[in-house]
């Protein structure tokens, strides 16, 4: 099995604040730090550090050199990353003293992925390969449908959750990874059991991971069996890449071993380590670090 992440590449600008800015307010940041990011990039790094060969497809602008270098540094194949004339996608991240964040994203080159790019990328992958998707690039509904038609294993993290999700044929998705907000938006329910019940009713062939913040995570396979795991408790410093780290490590373990409980536990520990560190890419642990805690 080969793994390709078709996703976003962002330059993250993180502003350290006492508290998040409120409407009409002007505040000063104590520091600004710049990192490579984007949910696609973070999930690719997590998959790679979990011990997999990883391919990346996406787009950067002329100012995206640091992202291309980061892909190279992490040993991620970038043959399917195009460079566009415009600007790279970027994120403005407010990080408060408790480690929480608020994020604004500008798509930039991430919004310039075309159907031709999709066809060129998918031509190099086939049945049984994994494709990992989020909602930060253009053409996501098209990618989901075409990857499914090729017999690929489709993993989808519908984040950020917005109206474009309605255009996606979710019956083509094998693994859906959502948090409570995304799950509520897709199901119309707010409690975890009802979210999972409704999603299974609508998509009986789908495997679902529902993350519950401080309450842990639940995996429901397509048979309806459910597995729960608590969080790995740490002192939170920066939660920016926690969900992406969880996604990468969960998929890696689940597709390697098929043990849902072990996969949740591994992903929980990996996400916990990420939360205890600053930044996105720098916070994502290696498999050896996770194993040391497990």
What is this structure's SSE topology?
Layout: E1 3-6, E2 10-16, E3 31-37, H1 39-49, E4 54-60, H2 65-73, E5 77-83, E6 89-95, E7 101-106, H3 115-122, E8 130-133, H4 140-149, E9 153-156, E10 175-179, H5 180-187, H6 192-202, E11 207-211, E12 217-220, E13 226-229, H7 242-257, H8 260-275, H9 287-293
Parallel strand pairs: 1-4, 1-8, 2-6, 4-5, 8-9, 9-10, 10-11
Antiparallel strand pairs: 2-3, 6-7, 11-12, 12-13
Helix pairs in contact: 1-7, 3-4, 5-6, 7-8, 8-9
List keywords for this structure.
294 residues, alpha/beta, 4-stranded mixed beta sheet, 9 helices, 24% strand, globular
Low-confidence stretches: none
Strand tally: 13
Mean pLDDT: 95
- From the alpha-carbon coordinates, what is the Rg to the nearest angstrom? 18 Å
Order of helices and strands: EEEHEHEEEHEHEEHHEEEHHH
- What oligomeric arrangement do these chains adopt? single chain
Into which percent range does the helicity of residues fall? 25-40%
Q: State the end-to-end CA separation.
A: 26 Å
